[in-house]
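Re-run with default settings, no changes from the original entry. Doing this only to confirm the output is reproducible before filing.
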Amino acid sequence: MPQSIVTTVNGTSVHGIITHHAPYDITIEITQPFSGFTTWCHIPYFARNHIHYKGEKGREKATELLAELYQEFIETCLK
């Protein structure tokens, strides 16, 4: 079941959902102020003893990805 996430970037409220969340993979989709774009992050096998997306670390990474996706869209598509 997708989990909602919200962050603020340069005064703009950005909403998204976590569409896939596993200990070593996470995928998010932006839903507002625009929709239809996703991004993901994967932790390679050799780094799994040190990094994971479990619990709060997963939500923090999802929020970071959402902010990065929004910023990339603004910088790339609206110029």
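Residues 72 and 78 are 10 Å apart (CA to CA). The chain has one helix and four strands.
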